[in-house]
């Protein structure tokens, strides 16, 4: 009689070709919150956060009017998942060329970064080791 076919082994699926290990970072991703303030002329303010050679986060375009007081359309909070120890560079730009005029960028261990004057400023830093936190729950 034909041999009964062997039971499929539960571990077989895990023996698919081994993926190459991901390039470092060796640390698990941590979730960080970044806060920005609009300043007097939020439509001039933009920024890109480069980490490990790629842009991981950019400012949301601002389409509201300037001199807006609280600027309801200005995005003041961003979330990003990064590995602690990664080198990042924040490139902050002001389209008018007169600095951010009160706008600021805080997060990843940096506080109140701004473009003091001119049209662009860069800040390099290393992502700090943060206690792991979960992304905020989605709004209902």
Give the helix proportion (percent range): under 10%
The residue-averaged pLDDT reads: 82
Distance between the termini: 61 Å
Number of helices: 0
In what range is the share of β-strand residues? 35-45%
The coarse silhouette is globular
Q: Report the structural category.
A: mainly beta
Explain the layout of strands and helices.
Elements lengths: L29 E8 L7 E7 L2 E5 L18 E6 L4 E8 L9 E4 L2 E4 L6 E7 L14
Antiparallel strand pairs: 1-4, 1-6, 2-3, 2-5, 5-8, 6-7
List keywords for this structure.
140 residues; mainly beta; 4-stranded antiparallel beta sheet; 8 strands; 35% strand
Structure in words:
With 140 residues, the protein is an all-beta fold. 0% of the residues lie in helices and 35% in strands. The protein has a four-stranded antiparallel β-sheet with strand order 4-1-6-7, with no helix packed on it.
Short structural description:
This protein is mainly β and 140 residues long.
């Amino acid at each position: 009689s034909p041999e009964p076919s062997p039971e499929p082994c539960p571990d077989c699926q895990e023996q698919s070709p081994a993926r190459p290990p991901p390039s470092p970072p060796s640390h698990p991703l941590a979730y960080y919150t970044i806060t920005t303030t609009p300043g007097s002329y939020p439509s001039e303010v933009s920024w890109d956060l480069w980490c490990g050679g790629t842009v991981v986060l950019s400012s949301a375009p601002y389409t509201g009017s300037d001199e807006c007081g609280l600027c309801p359309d200005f995005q003041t909070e961003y979330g990003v998942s990064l590995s602690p120890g990664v080198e990042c560079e924040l490139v902050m730009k002001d389209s008018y060329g007169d600095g951010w005029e009160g706008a600021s960028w805080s997060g990843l261990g940096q506080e109140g970064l701004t473009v003091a004057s001119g049209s662009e400023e860069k800040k390099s830093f290393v992502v700090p080791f943060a206690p792991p936190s979960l992304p905020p729950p989605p709004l209902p």
